[in-house]
Amino acid sequence: MSSAVTSYVIFTVFSQMSVGALIAMMIADFLAKSKDDEKFFETGAWVSVPVAVIGLIGILSHEARPMLAMMTMTKHVGTSMLSNEVLALTVFVILAVIYTILWLLHPEYGSLKWFPIFPAIVGKFMPLRKPVGVLATLVGLAFLFVSAKAYMMYTLPSFNHPTTIFFFYVTALLAGVTAVAAVLSVKYLVKKQGDAPLARMLWVTMGVAVVMLVVLIIALMAQTSMLEVAETEYALAAQQETLKGMLEGDYATFYMARWVVGVGLALVCALALALPLKKKSMTTAAIIAVVLFILVLVGEIMGRTVLFGTNVPLGHVLPDIGGFYTTLGL
Amino acid sequence: MATYYKFLNVIEKCINCGACFAICKDQNKVPHGTARVQIVTINEGVPGEKNIPVSCMHCTNPPCEAACPTKAIEQRTVKDWEGKDAVVVTVDKHKCIGCGYCGWACPFGAPQYPHGLEGDLAEWEGIMDKCTMCVIPFVPKEGDLQAKARCGLFCSTKARLGGDIAEIMPEYTKAKSRNTIALQDRGGVL
């Protein structure tokens, strides 16, 4: 696996997870019925921004000039989808930082309320938290779409399918929501407080996870079908190379493991969450939530590794015309 | 009036002598491990073997230019050796960040990302390099340079034609019409 593939995997999985984590916090914001609930949920606000930073480090690490990249990557907005993607991510991260600050510096329950001066200032802007969160969510969802479109080029035949959009949204919601649920579950396991808010959050997590896993199953099955048809012979050759790498080649093990870990086991885990939640056995539910997040994260990383690792650009097929002829049986 | 500068390959005439590759390396000081023009061989060692020199085709609507997030790739008008205005696709290596997005956008696999460069060349590690119609050498220099497709000029069989599309197109058509058997061989695939 090349270092570029690792960078793309880290960038896409973590930046998308960041969007999902912010959406999870928005859900928590609306689920909170009291200050105590908000105090419990506040810990989840630590997830989104650090995860986005990991994603940004991931993508910058593969650039030849990372510092220049930070300054110039948005120079071609409107034309270059990569510029659009970076701009959308930048706006999302700025909004996510503001939203996170409004949680963490809350004068009454914020983790950083001990910080001098700032909590008092931030306290005045607290009514803006939900509107900022909604705005950040919308920008985040737009970022996911732009990010998918950045890869959906006709010269990348294996990405140029609607499934790419579904994969990105699934990663965001599945990994992001389960990440926040896992953090809150760990908090519960340590402090043994917050049964009611955790139960509400885990019911939502279970619902989101089951729906997203079903979407993922459909998208994965659609992907293998779509890779068998293409508009041009060259695109077909590239897609067949991708399919071969996915089902028989170097990435076949990852692909199968992704189905087992990231889909099968994750789905069992997500459904199993209903039992302890019904019995109000929160310790068991919290442990299952943590396991679910680990399975989802491992599955998504493996899935993304397959997606990028087996990607065959048209530019790799065209010069390899010998390989192209072989694919066509000539 | 500016004209588009292109490459056309009379595939049937290419004998894989490597002259285009060698003159490009020499003229543009392209280091080991990077090739602005590559010769691709089809059906090697069997009847119907063909060789195709592949490089940047200087597209009229370059997808790499549209993809580049830093506007490092630019379709611009330069002078050729006769003083005519020539439209070619160049890359400003000082602006390139080496993201590799142009490599995905190009259908010909023309963009190269050199690795293992040492000494004075280390600055260009991972920075995109491609054919600029001999306008910009591997290490960019100050001053105006002329568009001149030396790979085409040095081609021993005139299989590789490079330059003003209005001038090379009749030459290409004539060469192709002489080789009707080869045209039938192609069967509309290539």
Structure in words:
- The complex is a heterodimer of chains A (330) and B (190).
- The longest helix of chain A has 32 residues, at 195-226.
- Chain A has helices spanning 3-31, 35-41, 48-60, 66-72, 81-104, 118-124, 129-151, 163-191, 195-226, 233-247, 252-272, 274-278, 282-309, 314-317, 321-327.
- Chain A has one domain (3-315): Formate dehydrogenase/DMSO reductase fold, CATH 1.20.1630.
- In chain A, 76% of the residues lie in helices and 0% in strands.
- Chain B has a single domain (3-186), classed as Alpha-Beta Plaits (2-Layer Sandwich), CATH 3.30.70.20.
- In chain B, a hairpin with a 7-residue loop joins strand 2 (37-42) and strand 3.
- Chain B has helices at residues 19-28, 63-67, 101-105, 150-153, 165-178, 180-186, and strands at residues 3-9, 37-42, 50-55, 73-79, 85-91, 160-164.
- Chain B is an alpha+beta fold and 190 residues long.
- In chain B, the strands form two sheets. A four-stranded mixed sheet of chain B has the order 4-5-1-6. A two-stranded antiparallel ribbon of chain B has the order 2-3.
- The longest helix of chain B is centred in the C-terminal third of the chain and has 14 residues, at 165-178.
- The mean pLDDT of chain B is 88.
- The A-B interface holds A 4, 62-66, 68-69, 72-76, 79-83, 86, 153, 155-156, 233-234, 313-316, 318-322, 325, 330 and B 38, 40-44, 52, 54, 63, 66-71, 95-101, 103-111, 113, 125-127, 189-190.
Structural class of chain B: alpha+beta
Strand content of chain A is: under 5%
**CATH topology descriptor of chain A:** Formate dehydrogenase/DMSO reductase fold
Query: Which CATH C-level class of chain B is it?
Result: Alpha Beta
Proportion of residues in helical segments of chain A? over 70%
Could you tell me how far the N terminus lies from the C terminus of chain B, measured between alpha carbons in angstroms?
Answer: 32 Å
- Strand count, sense and closure of the main sheet of chain B? 4 strands, mixed
Name given to the CATH architecture of chain A: Up-down Bundle
Low-confidence stretches of chain B: none
- Quickly give the CATH architecture of chain B: 2-Layer Sandwich
Q: Roughly how many Å is the radius of gyration of chain B?
A: 17 Å
Q: Please give the share of residues in helix of chain B.
A: 10-25%
Largest sheet of chain A: none
The coarse overall form of chain B would be globular
Q: Measure the end-to-end span of chain A.
A: 30 Å
Oligomerization category of the chains in this entry: heterodimer
Greatest interface and its residue counts? A-B, 35 and 37 residues
The CATH class of chain A, by name, is Mainly Alpha
Question: Number of domains in the coordinates of chain A?
Answer: 1
Low-confidence stretches of chain A: 322-330
Counting structural domains of chain B, the number is 1
